[in-house]
TrEMBL record, chain B:
Origin: domain of life: Bacteria
Pfam families given in the database record: BPD_transp_1 (PF00528)
Keyword line: Cell membrane, Membrane, Transmembrane, Transmembrane helix, Transport
Main location: membrane
Coiled-coil stretches: none
Official protein name in the record: Carbohydrate ABC transporter permease
Alphabetized Gene3D superfamilies for the sequence: MetI-like
Keyword Hydrolase: no
Length: 322, 308
């Protein structure tokens, strides 16, 4: 992702659409975005993306923050209520339950997913370079969360699911995976690991490719085993990539919704009422768009804080390589 | 088998003799287990879809389809009469997956084609055109990466409602049809690395910049566009939360939303697992086929550049 370094600057040679074309030269100012060479043309090229950015990204972000200070039910205009929604949120036990459930989900999901993805990535690097296997691990990612949720709902069904058939066949008690308060969150977390672990593994695999093979060869000459090489070479050198992937997956994990919606619908007894599901219910079930927006802002703040802390802790921007 | 595969790998341990060590056996076992867990659900979807609901209840652990039938698929596609469907354990709710298949295709195609065209145009302006404020605007776009998609959904719903586009395919497509910060960023990386000589040669031939973009740069970018395009297509195909907010009726219902409704239409006697798995397969198969065509390229792009 490096940009070719520019030769020393020369006079900018301008050319605008329609004028006589001239040979172009590279100059430093161009890289820095200086100059006014292609203003009109650039405006044309950037207009559609800019429109989309302003209307569907920047404006809704600002509007979401604004709505969090209002009472709004979609039918009548939003009414400014100051901090009411936030006060209500702090006093809302269901909100805190919901946040707790979400955090629990994220820990289980990210914990299992990161360890498995790392194992798969290392196996794909050290054991076999098979491109077919890399394709195979990606296949669950092609499914929607909805499909993944429904399939596992079926496979983990207490009476008819193949999972419980095997468990019963081995002589254990059947487990009501998605119908039980303690099992539901771990089960949903693992279902989502199934869908995302291959993709995560490939991202880590990309990071592993940057580690020179010579280092492994040299370590081997010194008599190091695979286990030792993993801790002494792979882990330290993969750290920056791992950090970025962690930040990304944690942010994604906090937004869990689809799987919950199709498997447990927040139940049993609010045991899987994750934040996004609670927000959706507030907005579309009870038409409290203001309150829902306030909770979304809270989620945004939590995510930004986590990103910041993780970034600092893991020194994600730095690399130990070369 | 294990030792042979190890020797055929190109880069790793070329110098070492293949040996079957306990560690390797464990490693291959783990790998095999991972592959099994990855692929088993796909087989189980097929096996269930081809069975009847009554037989499924009687033989839950049978590895092969029980009482082979295509009833599940007929039900999912709305080809069965209501009585027939109910007799076979369906809800008789009359979902028509043909319709949703078309809706999903329209939405994903709209989003993919326009998002990538517009993102590539913007990326070209960021990478190769000179204009005042370029880096500031690009920084702003990049900051957009930090906003979780989910945060913009509620306000975007309010906007789409005000535009009168609720329950329309355009309403579902619009928010992601113009750009995503990621697509712009990804394409810009590519354009930055195209040698300038290519453009210079075209300029010498008298081509304008618009012409250069469409005739030279876009064709050159076909590989990254393909990867990005397939991933965008898969993402929009699989999206559930946003279409769930926007669509209310058959006219704009996409596959993910229809599947969730199908799952919620629980008949008294229990789920119509056969029909549900058939519908699931209908929803998933197009992406498996699409991936099948481009797998090699996509896998190598992700696993060597670390897309996203």
């Amino acid at each position: 992702m490096t940009v070719a370094s520019s030769p020393p600057s020369r006079l900018p040679v301008r050319d605008i659409e329609g004028t006589q074309p001239k040979p172009r030269t590279r100059e430093k100012r161009e890289r820095d975005g200086g100059g006014r060479g292609d203003g009109a043309l650039a405006a044309l090229f950037i207009a559609p993306a800019m429109l989309g950015f302003l209307v569907f990204l920047l404006w809704p972000t600002l509007r979401g923050i604004y709505l969090s200070f209002t009472r709004f039910n979609l039918l009548t205009p939003a009414e400014w209520v100051g901090l009411d929604n936030y006060v209500r949120m702090v006093k809302d036990p269901i909100f805190w339950d919901s946040l707790t459930v979400t955090v629990e989900y994220v820990f289980i999901n990210i914990g299992i997913q990161t360890v498995s993805a790392l194992a798969i990535a290392v196996l794909l690097q050290r054991l076999t370079q098979s491109a077919i296997l890399r394709g195979v691990v990606l296949t669950p990612y092609l499914m929607s969360n909805v499909v993944a949720g429904i399939v596992w709902l079926w496979m983990l069904d207490t009476q008819l699911g193949i999972g419980n058939e095997i468990i019963a066949g081995l002589g254990f008690d059947r487990i009501p995976f998605l119908a039980d308060e303690t099992w539901a969150i771990p089960t949903i977390a693992v279902i989502n690991v199934w869908r995302h672990v291959g993709y995560t593994a490939l991202l880590l695999f990309a990071g592993l490719q940057a580690i020179p093979n010579d280092m492994y060869e040299a370590a081997k000459v010194d008599g190091a085993g695979e286990w030792r090489m993993f801790w002494r070479i792979t882990m330290p050198l993969l750290r920056p990539v791992l950090a970025v992937v962690l930040i990304m997956t944690v942010i994604g994990s906090f937004q869990v919704f689809d799987t919950v919606a199709v498997t447990t619908a927040g139940g049993p007894a609010n045991a899987t009422n994750v934040l996004q599901y609670y927000i959706y219910g507030a907005a579309f079930g009870r038409f409290q768009f203001g309150y829902a927006s306030a909770m979304s802002v809270a989620l945004l703040v939590v995510l930004s804080a986590i990103t910041f802390v993780q970034y600092r802790l893991t020194r994600a921007g730095q690399t130990d390589l070369g | 088998m294990t030792a042979v595969t190890a020797t055929t790998t190109t880069k790793v341990r070329r110098t070492q003799r293949p040996r079957i060590t306990p560690g390797k056996v464990v490693a291959w076992t783990v790998m095999a287990a991972m592959v099994l867990i990855t692929l088993l659900p796909f087989y189980w979807i097929l096996r269930t879809a081809l069975s009847t609901n009554t037989a499924l209840a009687a033989h839950p652990g049978d590895p092969l389809p029980v009482d082979l039938t295509t009833g599940g698929f007929e039900r999912a596609l709305g080809l069965q009469s209501t009585e027939e469907a109910i007799a076979q354990g369906g809800s008789g709710g009359g979902l028509k997956f043909w319709r949703y298949l078309i809706n999903s295709t329209v939405v994903s195609t709209l989003i993919t084609v326009f998002q990538i065209l517009f993102s590539a145009m913007a990326a070209y302006a960021f990478a190769r055109l000179r204009w005042r404020g370029r880096d500031t605007v690009f920084g702003l776009f990049l900051a957009g990466l930090m906003v979780p998609t989910i945060f913009t959904l509620l306000p975007n719903f309010v906007l789409i409602k005000q535009l009168g586009l609720v329950d329309s395919l355009l309403g579902i497509s619009l928010p992601t049809m113009f750009m995503t910060p990621f697509a712009v960023f990804f394409m810009r990386q590519f354009f930055m690395n195209v040698p300038r000589e290519v453009e210079e040669a075209a300029l010498l031939d008298g081509a304008g910049k618009i012409r250069i973009f469409f005739r030279v740069m876009l064709p050159m970018a076909s590989a990254p566009i393909l990867t990005l395009g397939v991933l965008t297509y898969i993402t929009s195909w699989n999206d559930y939360f946003w279409p769930l907010m926007v669509s209310y009726s058959d006219s704009s219902r996409v596959l993910t939303v229809a599947l969730a409704i199908f799952r919620a239409q629980t008949p008294q006697s229990g789920y119509d697992w056969s029909g549900l798995m058939a519908a699931t397969l209908i929803a998933a198969l197009p992406m498996l086929v699409l991936f099948g065509f481009f797998a090699r390229r996509i896998v190598s792009t992700i696993s060597f550049t670390g897309i996203k």
